[in-house]
């Protein structure tokens, strides 16, 4: 990570596309979430998403190439879910750009691309990618709960595995709706509550593994079974020793066993809770993807691809939500209907009390 920060401190050129959205002044963020969000920002600033999957020097062509090879090997269905080839001429906003794998594909497809990320690290490392590739884009450091863009600024908002790391995910979805133009689309991936990973791996298997990590012999066995870096396993062992009860709390099991032992926050969502957050949208569709063979130690990598695909579609870890902002001609009618429905629910609750 030190090499990455050295690249970032070196600075990057400002690359901007024409037809860029206007950046607006930030609204005040509730003080109660600022401290928690600062922890999230600090964690991802130190390790931009996917950067740990390569030994190549940060900011080099080889760095990005190896990251992309790994990413699209692990996530072979990602191209199908996003449909980069259909974004030519669209104003695309990506919330949480990581190291820029999707960013480059949007730009090469002809989209007017904008990235927003909570960290300067991700913004800078993605900007550097565009420099090397000779691509144009817009790069902004900002908060997904308070997007620094005007209303109706984009035709597509995309986010992969990011919005479950912010305290108020529902607020980010309202912001996505606001910055989309009428008829604009959202493609958002969140962690899935009803997945094998959450219901079995985290609730049962990882808790059993925590007991193994209490001893040096158990740590060695865990490394053989799960093939995780020894440094990470030792960090898990330290956290278990510090406070076993806290480590085994389900929220902490989720935090520490998704994106690293020091990850401060992850959240999971069901299809129902996702639909509730996207209630302002129309044509809301969900699908489940991504199966990790390591969830079934010893046999996971022996499963036929067809079986793996079936497991992913039912018990996968990634919940994709595809939704569309209503066109102007339907907005007034829909708002009136929603208001009447809300009044009815409030009255019913009042009577019940």
Topology:
Blueprint: H1 2-9, H2 31-46, H3 61-74, H4 78-82, E1 91-95, H5 101-108, E2 112-117, H6 120-133, E3 138-141, E4 154-160, H7 169-179, E5 180-191, H8 196-212, H9 216-226, H10 230-242, H11 244-248, H12 250-256, H13 271-277, E6 282-289, H14 305-315, E7 318-324, H15 328-352
Parallel strand pairs: 1-2, 1-4, 2-3, 4-5
Antiparallel strand pairs: 5-7, 6-7
Helix pairs in contact: 1-6, 9-10
Short description:
This protein has 353 residues and is α/β, with parallel strands linked by helices.
Characterize the structure shown.
This protein is α/β, with parallel strands linked by helices and 353 residues long. The chain has two domains: 2-192 and 268-333, 3-Layer(aba) Sandwich (Rossmann fold); 196-256, no CATH class. Helices cover 49% and strands 14% of the residues. The protein has 15 helices and seven strands. The protein has helices at residues 2-9, 31-46, 61-74, 78-82, 101-108, 120-133, 169-179, 196-212, 216-226, 230-242, 244-248, 250-256, 271-277, 305-315, 328-352; strands spanning 91-95, 112-117, 138-141, 154-160, 180-191, 282-289, 318-324. Strands 3-2-1-4-5-7-6 form a seven-stranded mixed beta sheet, sandwiched between helices. Helix 5 links the parallel strand 1 (91-95) and strand 2. The longest helix has 25 residues, at 328-352. It is globular. Residues 5-20, 25-32 and 339-353 have low confidence and may be disordered.
């Amino acid at each position: 990570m030190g090499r990455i920060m050295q690249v970032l401190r070196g600075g990057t050129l400002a690359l901007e596309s024409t037809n860029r959205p206007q950046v607006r002044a930030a609204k005040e963020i509730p003080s109660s979430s600022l401290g928690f969000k600062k922890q999230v920002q600090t964690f991802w600033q130190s390790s931009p998403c996917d950067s740990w999957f390569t030994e190549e020097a940060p900011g080099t062509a080889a760095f990005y190439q190896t990251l992309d090879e790994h990413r699209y090997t692990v996530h072979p269905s990602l191209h199908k879910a996003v449909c980069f080839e259909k974004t030519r001429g669209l104003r695309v906003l990506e919330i949480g750009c990581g190291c820029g794998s999707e960013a480059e594909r949007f730009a090469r497809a002809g989209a007017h691309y904008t990235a927003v990320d909570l960290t300067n690290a991700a913004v800078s490392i993605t900007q550097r990618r565009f420099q090397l590739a000779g691509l144009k884009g817009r790069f902004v450091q900002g908060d997904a709960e308070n997007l620094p863009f005007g209303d109706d600024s984009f035709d597509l908002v995309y986010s992969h595995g990011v919005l479950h790391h912010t305290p108020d995910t529902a607020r980010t979805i309202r912001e996505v709706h606001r910055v989309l133009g009428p008829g604009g689309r959202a493609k958002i991936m969140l962690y899935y509550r009803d997945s094998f990973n959450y219901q079995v791996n985290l609730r049962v298997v990882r808790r059993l593994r925590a007991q193994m990590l209490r001893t040096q012999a158990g740590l060695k066995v865990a490394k053989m079974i799960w093939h995780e870096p020894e440094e990470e396993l030792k960090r898990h062992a330290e956290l278990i020793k510090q406070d076993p009860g806290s480590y085994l709390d389900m929220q902490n099991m989720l935090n520490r066993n998704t994106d690293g032992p020091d990850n401060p926050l992850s959240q999971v969502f069901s299809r129902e809770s996702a639909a509730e957050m996207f209630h302002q949208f129309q044509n809301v569709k969900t699908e489940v993807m991504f199966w990790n063979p390591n969830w079934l130690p010893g046999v996971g990598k022996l499963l036929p691809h067809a079986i793996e695909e079936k497991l992913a579609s039912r018990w996968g870890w990634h919940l994709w939500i595809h939704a569309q902002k209503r066109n102007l001609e339907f907005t007034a009618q829909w708002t009136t209907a929603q208001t009447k429905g809300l009044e009815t629910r409030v009255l019913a609750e009042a009577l019940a009390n």
